[in-house]
Structure formats: C-alpha cells, structure tokens
C-alpha cells in the first residue's frame, strides 16, 4: 500500500511512557510492553502496527481484552481519555534473517528499528511522531550473554534463577520507537571518557567481537573528536552519562543512531594498519561522526513522518562532510562527494526511482534510504550554508534547536528556522525539496569589446515521477583564471551576469567546489579545458575538466571518429606528472581513468561495449604514451610513508599494471599496510594480470579469519574479468555467507554495479537464480543492489530485452515488498 505525504494525519493516541521487558531466548523471546496512552483527539480506536509477531495477551487497565485485526493492524477500543495498555508478544530472533527488529547476529542479540522495524518487536504506534520515555528490562542467560544493553542510563542489574541475569535501562529523553535499541552478548569492551563543555563526564564504550579491542581505537579517537567538534562548531553537547557503540557483522546499512546506543556495521568500526585502508579509516571517522551528530539532528529533533527523512539525513550527512574536511580532509574529499552525486544520484534521478529529497509517495520506506535523500539532501543543505554564510547558518541552526528541541518536525520547519534567523525569504529555495531531477545548467560566454560576461540558463528535464519542472535558485561558483573568484546566484530560468573588463578573454573555471548538484553544458574549447585541468585552483574543476575532455573523446570514439581531446588530455597528464608534486591526493584523482559507471552518466543511452572498449583504449594510450614519466613519478612516491603518496602510488600502479607486472607483484608481497596491499591486488585485478589468481589466493589465506578484510576479496572477485564462471567456486568459499549482507553486497552487489559480464545472457540467467534466493533471505539487502538493473531502458536493444525478461521474472507472488516496489516502478509504462 502506497502512503502519501499529503495524507499525513496526527496520531489518534500519544504514548508518553513505554516499559519493556525482554525475556531473551534464542528462538522464543517474550516481549512485554506496557504503554501509558492518552487520546490525541476523539477517535476511540487505537490501531497498532505489528508484523511477524505472535500475540500472547492484551490487557487494558488490567483487564484482558480481545482485540481485532484490521488491515494487518491490531485494533483496540479505548473508551477513556487515558489508559495503560499491556501487550505480550513472542518472537523468534534466530529465524530473523531480514535483520529488521530483534535478531541474533554472530551469537549476539541486537536490533534495527529504523524505519519500521519496531513493529516486529511488539504492537505499537510505529511512527516517528509518537515520542515516549522508555524503561527497558533485559533478561538473558548470563554465561552466553554477559552484557545486556539498551538506551539511556543503567538503573539496576542483578542475578536471577537458572543462570539468568537482568539489567534495567532508563532513557529520560522522549524518543520515537525507531531509536529504540537492545543488545545482549559477550563482547570485548574498549572504554574511554569525555568531559563536555559544561562539565558532564561521559563514559564512552565500544563493544566489539572478542579479540578485536585494539581495532576499535581509531573509532574511539573519531568519537572523541566528533564530540568536541560538535561543541565547537554548533554548540551541541552530549546529554546522557554514557555513549555506547556496538559493532556487529550482520547489519543491513552502515550504522544506526539509537539514542545512547549506536549499533554499527563492524566494517565501520574495526580498523588497524594491517587490515584497513586509508579510505576505510576515513569512512569510519565519517560514520562515527554521522551517527554521533544524529543525537541532535535526528534524535533531539526528529522527523514528523518518514517523508521528512532528509530533515535528519541530509543535514547529518552535510555535518559529517564538514567534519571530515576538518578531520582528515584533503583536496580529494570534495571531489569524491561530487562523484557520488554525479554517478549514483544523477543515475537514480534518470531512472524509475527518481524522487525529490522529500519523497511524495512511498510503498516500502526502506527503499527511500537513497543517495537522493542522503547525499543530494546534503548538497541542498550545503547550498543553504553557502547562501547564508557560516554565521548565518549557525544562527539558523540555533533557532531550529531553540524552537524544536524535543519535537518531531518537517523539512519546512528547518528551512523556516534558517529563513527567520537570517530574515531572508527562502520560499523559492524550498523548491529543492519538492522537485526531483537534475537541473541542466547551460553556460554561454559573452565577450564584446573587452567586456566579459555570462549568460546562464537552467532547465530540468522531466523525470519518471514528475513531468513539470521549474527553475530553482542555485549558486554558481566560478574562478576567472588569474583574476579571482566569485559566486553568481542564479534565481531564474535565465540570467545574464557582467563580470568586468579584460584585455584578453579570461578562462572560466565553472562550478567550483561543485557548488550546486547540476549538470553543466558549456561549449568551452578543448584548449581551455586542458588549461583548467592543469591550472585551476579548485580541485573539483580540474578533475571535471579532464572528464569533460574525455567525454568529448569517448563520444567521438563511439561514433568511430578520432578527437583532438586525446592529445590535450595526454599532454596535460604529462605536465602534471613532470612538474613538482604539490598535491598528491589531487593527482591521484587526475591519474584515474573514469570508471565505466562514470562514463554511463555522460550519455543518455548506454553503449556498454563501446564504453568498455573506450576505457581500455584510454588505459593503453596512457600506458604507451606516458609510461616513462608516470613510472618516474611512481618511483618517487612509492616508498613515501604518507597517505597522499599512497593514494597516488595506487592510482599510478593501476594505470601501469600491465607493463609493471613484476612491480605489482613485489608491491603486494612487500606491502607495509593494507592500503598498499589492497592497492597492488586491485591493480593486478584491474589489469587482469596473469598473477592475479595467485595473489588472490595468497590474500584469502592471509586474511581468512577476518570477515571485513575478506569482503575486499569478495569485491575483487565480483569485479574481475571472468567473474561469472568462477562464481560457483567463490560462493562455496568459507568467506561467503548468503545470510550476511556485507558478504552478498561485496560479491553480488559489486558484480551488478561494476562488472560488464553482468550484462550478458549468462549474467542475466545467473541473476535470475541468485536474486530470488537472496530476496527470500533479506529483502532490504536485495533491493539495495538491483539499482543498476532498473536502468534497463537505457541499454541497447538486446540487453533491454534481457533485462526486461529478468526483471519480469523476478515479479512473483513470493517477491518481497521491497523488491516488488522497485520492479513495479521499473517495468511500468
Ligand atoms: N539512520 C541510519 C543512518 O543513516 C540508517 C538507517 C537505515 N535504516 C533502514 N532501514 N534503511 O545513519
Ligand atoms: Zn544518518
């Protein structure tokens, strides 16, 4: 059943307090839920959500009642204005492979309730605008589950008969049920403390699998840095006596911001030099920060309904991006953020799942934890930040918390706080929340009698969900090379900007820092693009200029023609490789040949074979023409013990893998850390070198005991050429596990997202067997990996037919709601 934003109604009842008792047993867990209810209007019918529950009993004010079921909800008539409702349910956490609600993972109990998982624990008003104070008693076997955790502060614990024990937790901050969490297990514990600006001593605890405590140290440093950063940047302090993080290997997403008890996918907690890459370290810091920041943007101020998800996610991603640029930021940080938008988000908007950052209709909420809601949502906040300035944005944040602390609110409330704090009108800006699709920004230069100016126009093409589009206010940041920077505010469909008098026509660096999530159309000369690629002061502009050159070149190649952009691109790379090294991170980006995925974004129709061939040709051109200079640079940086140097070394090694075959092998064997080892291995796989089998086998032997590292191996197995014929074998390896979404995403998800072999008859045949099996185990994990297949209409005719048949074949009576919604959208019309 589809829900619509326009149909929002306030809840008929409020629940001010919820007392929970969990009697944990592996397959038969009993949950007793006592709610303090009050009517929020005149409707006497209380309708509670529930899924996969066995109802044991219901009592209203101490009297047994027999409820009825209507449309999957439990309906209870409540005559008085307030009442106490006691519900007992039984659930099976071991059989729960969907990993929503309460489940057992690697021998521990844990929960995931966002978005609508709490209804798999007990019958409840499972919606974010019902805020209650929780008291949770957890009872379990003491030997097997010595640690019993829930939200808030520990109030009591003790022994019980039969080897069991209990702990009672109280969370004084009213919260929606999606922030509820429970964990029971036997973990190693890393502890530390943090004193807040106003003097509260906070106990910090990170719970990890036995034997891995030292691998939580980096996460702990990131946590303390996050706590300090949020105080310094936004004046936001932590509000409980302890903050706990639990790392589990079975988890559908990255992590979850449950109040006082964050639960993390282990891959975003555990790290040391031998097992994690520099990128892993940065990702961990970003996600630790993200979940911690949710304590204010998400928990203290939460969402009225799930259509408002970007209220907390877009804002919190923006905050974690700001944090990352302060913590470990390099010139590549922003380039990578822009890449996520330009590859994944633009593709989402070009396909059947197109939606505004505040969606209008949703069938399965889990399908809307998207790169649009999260990352485009963050770009929208970034534009506000730029528009209002640092102080203005901070004033808006302060007003937002002053007005809405403890409330469940909307995206409009957030923008209104920004507008009111700065006394500006943001009503047109709100269009970014309503409108889906990617604005195409066309730039035309005006150069007359020494006067230089720009004519900007914008047009958003229709998307699958929305035909009518209008212009949106957007900041266009520019640099005139050698003459300085400026930000032009485009308000309308078309506007002209005079930029002054010059002796010669200046060279324009457009969209500095990726100032707005738009596609650029600008017929700049090849020579100017080459100049930007070498000389612009903005890193994003430099990488983008290279891409725009390559886009022209590849477009010509696809037509069987040659293009002068090739020589210019090679010449610029030569220049970059021979001049003094100033920014290794940036050069690491410039020395990457764009992925086939990135190239798909350059064209409406996907000529997959043509793009694969073009990419190979680009790689071989670089190898043949620039080997000497690239090799010199490789020699210069390969032993430098510094992150930027490692990034650059890995890019160069990937480009030069074929001629450097022995060098790749040596680099792998002599690696001093995982960044070097995985970089060499990835280079061997990308170059399809003869020794890649031996290296992969060595890697599996070295790391077979570390599932997070083995995910890197599974990813490479998904990416490599010849992946399909080896799949059977890889899936039999002990590293693979159908029930673990990290494993299936690494192998199957990577295969779908990156491997051209996916788009063969045999690939589609294989997926038609694998995906239904996976969907029966874990719908959410399955739905998250089919995105690229939904783009079927953009492929050539043969693949279109193959994909259409595949997608249609996946629609059966057994298909999950998650996958079903995506298939329905992809195949309609
Ligand atoms: N709120 C979590 C985060 O971004 C993600 C939870 C995702 N849940 C889901 N059902 N998809 O930090
Ligand atoms: Zn989040």
From TrEMBL:
It comes from the Bacteria. Its EC number is 3.4.11.2. Residues 437-521 form the Peptidase M1 alanyl aminopeptidase Ig-like fold domain. InterPro entries: Aminopeptidase_N-like_N (IPR045357), Aminopeptidase_N-like_N_sf (IPR042097), PepN_Ig-like_sf (IPR038438), Peptidase_M1 (IPR001930), Peptidase_M1_dom (IPR014782), Peptidase_M1_pepN (IPR012779), Peptidase_M1_pepN_C (IPR024601), Peptidase_M1_pepN_C_sf (IPR037144). Residues 219-429 form the Peptidase M1 membrane alanine aminopeptidase domain. It holds the Pfam family DUF3458. Keywords: Aminopeptidase, Hydrolase, Metal-binding, Metalloprotease, Protease, Zinc. Coiled coil: none annotated. It catalyses: Release of an N-terminal amino acid, Xaa-|-Yaa- from a peptide, amide or arylamide. Xaa is preferably Ala, but may be most amino acids including Pro (slow action). When a terminal hydrophobic residue is followed by a prolyl residue, the two may be released as an intact Xaa-Pro dipeptide. Its cofactor is Zn(2+). One of its GO terms (molecular function) is metallopeptidase activity. Residues 526-828 form the Peptidase M1 alanyl aminopeptidase C-terminal domain. It is an enzyme of class 3 (hydrolase). Residues 48-179 form the Aminopeptidase N-like N-terminal domain. One of its GO terms (biological process) is proteolysis. Belongs to the peptidase M1 family. This is Aminopeptidase N. It comes from Gallaecimonas pentaromativorans. The lineage of its organism: Bacteria, Pseudomonadati, Pseudomonadota, Gammaproteobacteria, Enterobacterales.
